[in-house]
Amino acid sequence: MDTTTVFGPIEGPPPAAHGAGRFAPSPSGDLHLGNLRTLVLAALFARASGRAFRWRIEDLDRVRAGSAESQLADAAELGIDWDAPLVVQSERTAAYEAALAQLTERGEVFECYCSRKDIQAAPTAPHAPPGAYPGTCRDLDEDERRTARAALAEAGRQPALRLRSSLREARAHDALLGTLTAPLDDFVLRRGDGVFAYNLTSVVDDGAAGIDQVVRGDDLASSAPRQADLAACLGIEPPAYAHVPLVLSASGARLAKRDGAVTLQELRALGFDVWGWIGRSSGFGAWGSFAEALGEFDPARLVREPAVFIPPE
What we know:
By secondary structure, the chain is an alpha/beta fold. It has helices at residues 3-6, 33-48, 67-77, 93-105, 116-121, 142-154, 198-208, 224-233, 264-269, 274-281, 290-296; strands spanning 20-23, 52-57, 87-88, 109-112, 160-163, 169-174, 178-183, 188-190, 213-217, 240-244, 247-248, 307-308. Belongs to the class-I aminoacyl-tRNA synthetase family.
């Protein structure tokens, strides 16, 4: 299926003959060292395999003014370039509507009237993870739906839209983690506030841009099976995945801006060798530039454990 026709073409040069990788940050603040390391690795995976490298701004939810520009500037300062076009999700809502319409027409979407509190309080299946959606609204009859819809409207809310999944286990292959498995629940496609959900937008945009390689933090590994399954539902070839280890703070939590000097500009101001640290923490020598990293990069040598970073004083 030509998904660029169904879900809206992304203008610009066609994908490279060997496909494309991508980096897709939310513009919610400056990139910290963990984000920068993932950016570098995503670019290396793409360029080392002869792929194009795309950049997507995922601005449907968390946005801070000026963040998208500062993230792009940090990449440029590190010597990482990307192939046009620059994709902005808020400009692509028609593509998500088209994908949702395709699934709806096949009877694979249903309205959900539950609040987060309702879901947390509901009993779940014996083997389901805590907080998993229990299928409350999946099989309501039309009278029940009409009543629930009216109650939400009176409260100024609208239903979320969920995928009517097969409720089976899905799989995806990861170049670093091996086979990933996850139960296919009725996950959200569009939230009750009208915002399209990450799983839908990511799959649609990757398909439209010819992305066949997804390199990202391993905190998102559990999303890969459901995204691969959704891609197949939409006639999109699922990408190859490589989920790289996160950078953690001294406490063992995911690195965050509250941990101190962690952004590129903060670290540079302290004279910290950002390239050297990224190279060593990834299992290589102290890189000095992207060109040097590309000449040495071998996915087989990539460290498989999280890196711990203690910001300089």
